[in-house]
Structure formats: structure tokens, C-alpha cells
Design brief:
The structure is a single chain. By secondary structure, this protein is mostly helical. The chain has 6 helices and 2 strands; from the N terminus they run ααααααββ. It has a two-stranded antiparallel sheet with strand order 1-2. The radius of gyration is 18 Å and the shape is globular.
């Protein structure tokens, strides 16, 4: 009886998950918010990750690799520690819906979609000495 309940629960969750994911998944509308919430704290210029995920152009070549590491749950790296990775405690693990969004995006050929669907940039870069913006000013590091 317990086994039947588990199977029913699994089927219900699968149906709910598939109904939640849009038929067409695009970078700007669906994937970019996931990257902003879980990836860009490290995957941006001047931070610990060697790959930038700030723009579609930077992200698209890594689509297949992204799919592999989110399915295997290698990313986000839960072993990171706050003193070494500033936002390590903030990005958390991906939900099943977020994983399915990335997988579906890659399976559809990683379409860009409409840049107007993009959320505003989440991460700002502090301007420092010698910066034409002047000391203490901020600017988005991902311009569209």
C-alpha cells in the first residue's frame, strides 16, 4: 500500500512539474532569472568561476555543459564556503522546476527569445579609482 502511495505521489509531482514548465523555454524569459538567482554570484567578471553567464552570448556555448552539471547536481557547488565565495550561502540548490527549465531550454536548442522579456540586471559592479564613472558609482555589469 505504501508503494502505491509513493508511485501516485511521484506521478502527481511529474504531471505538476510538466504542466508548470512552459512549452517553449527561452533564455531571456526563463533561464536568465535562474542564472541570476543561482549562478551569477560566481559566474560573472572578476569572480571565482572561470565562465561568465551574464549575457546570452556568453552563456549559449555552455548550454550542454550546464544541462549536465545541473542534472548531476554538481552545480551550484554546495561545498563552497562564505569566506571564499561571497554569495555561497545565498544561491542554494536548484529546485526541480529550475533544473527542468534549463534542461528543456537546452533540449529546444537553447533559444534566446526576446530580450525585452529579460529581468533587470541583478548584479552591479562597483566603480573604483580610475573608472570613468567615478569613485563610488555603480553600473550594471550585464548590458542588454
Amino acid at each position: 500500500m505504501k508503494r502505491i502511495r509513493l508511485i501516485g505521489l511521484w506521478l502527481g509531482a511529474t504531471i505538476l512539474l510538466s504542466a508548470t514548465i512552459n512549452e517553449s523555454v527561452t533564455y531571456y524569459r526563463d533561464v536568465l532569472p535562474v542564472l541570476q538567482n543561482h549562478c551569477q554570484s560566481c559566474h560573472r567578471p572578476g569572480h571565482v568561476a572561470p565562465i561568465n553567464f551574464m549575457t546570452y552570448k556568453e552563456t549559449r556555448p555552455w548550454a550542454e555543459a550546464m544541462k549536465d552539471v545541473v542534472i548531476s547536481r554538481q552545480m551550484p557547488p554546495w561545498f563552497t564556503e562564505r569566506p571564499y565565495v561571497p554569495a555561497a550561502g545565498d544561491h542554494g540548490s536548484l529546485t526541480p522546476i529550475e533544473i527542468e527549465t534549463i534542461v528543456r531550454w537546452v533540449d529546444l536548442g537553447a533559444p534566446a527569445g526576446d530580450p525585452k522579456d529579460a529581468p533587470p540586471p541583478l548584479y552591479l559592479q562597483q566603480a573604483g579609482f580610475g573608472n570613468p564613472l567615478g569613485r563610488g558609482s555603480v553600473k550594471p555589469i550585464a548590458w542588454r
